[in-house]
Amino acid sequence: MILLSEILLLLPEITLLLFAFVILFTDMFTNKQNIGPTIATFGVGISALSVLLMYLGLFGSTEISSLALANIISVDHYSLFFKLVMLIAALSLCLCSISLFDEGITSRGEFWTLFLLSLIGMIMLPSTTEMITTWVALELTSLPIVGMLALSEKKYSLEVALKYLVLGATSSAIILMGIAYLYGITGSTFFSDIASVTTGQIESRYFSSGSTNLLLLFSVILLVAGVSFKIASFPFFSWVPDVYQGAPTLVTIYLSVVSKIAGFAILIRILFEAVNRSSASDWAFFIAIMSLISMILGNIMAIRQVDIKRLFAYSTIAHAGYILIGVASIKSSASIENNLLGLQSTIFYLVAYAVTNLTGFLCILSISEKIKSTAIEDFSGIGFSLKSQAVILSISLISLLGIPTTIGFMGKAFIFSSAISNGFYWLAIAGIVNSIISAYYYVRIIKIMFIDEPKDSHTIARSNDIYSLVVTSLGVVIIFIIGLAPVILLDIVESVVNSFV
Fold this sequence. Notes:
This protein has helices at 4-8, 11-26, 35-55, 77-97, 108-124, 131-150, 157-186, 191-196, 199-205, 212-231, 240-246, 249-273, 280-303, 308-328, 336-371, 382-385, 387-401, 407-421, 425-450, 466-484, 487-500, and strands at residues 65-68, 73-76. The chain is mostly helical.
């Protein structure tokens, strides 16, 4: 029997669903273009507020460890933390899109309805504790995005939507195969049941000695490979450059920030709660290889790009590799303190990446709307005409690069130190080398904006983007405050990890 208290734990998701229907019905009776993002802003804001109240213990369960809906949903500090981060990022997008919105998007009411439906799946993912529920949440995140990509008048909108659909379906099939193997081995789809089954128990029931570890490892590899589509890392990252470039910038930001956070949130929960710790050293090496390839391919390919959205696409692949360093640093052979260090560094870097990338991409949205181009060469000299946006974008770039006093530097420092503490010296060195490589294309953008001469063909469109300026300015403040005083975020991350582990 489902109790009312359990339903209230899903208030953030229910709120988004209600506002999605409000947008859909309101769009039938009005032609105002900004009515969709305005309603979405209120809906996401209310949902974020409910999550914050739950996290503080002022609403819902007093212990913040409740299981709801037949134990398939877990509402704890871990899930609430990631929900809040994703909702704040989504709220920033909604707020900025009131004044800055791609004119090429058609059917805006349907677009914002799909946006909220996808966001429901995103914030549901960190809470799932059962494999089939996880797969359904993943599908709920992906299918509305296909519609959002298609609702554009851009030349390649249908092409990128189809590419995202096909590769998304492939990754979903791989995840289902991994779930089927786990169910066949353990007889359950619940994370806790799967993790509690020991190798000896399985071998005595089904398999010959020594075969079980290989089967479990194969299942985990299938799951991780499938989730790599959501986090934009090797092996399922081929869709990223084309989709990022061809999609409306708003969708690109959503995929780059919110989708990546959701993917890593569920990946961490699966590896910590659904996989027996005895096999951690086996899958850690596989994730380390994923990290290495993602970093190398992302940074090398970014050097060649002439479109800033495509450059950021390869950049986000490289950053997925950096984050995977922290995930790979969690090994059963290491001490508990080092295991927690790897998890803490991963979550810290995720937040650092979210703040920095969101700030930078919103600046790109603002600038590209004014100069009507996303070509990097068309950004030449805008440091003289669009000073505030260019300065904020430059600060975001140096944070992504990892320059001291920024949140990006602290994130990379924690990630690399956790890799060294857990014996992945070669992976930490590879991360440092790749960070040096990324300096070329990050600094090149700053050089083009502030040193190159402005183009005579520049026509700066006037627009009222006060919301974007406020949000990005707040992002810069966070970049420097956490960069100078990382303990502020570290204390929060430590409490989240302690409650989760």
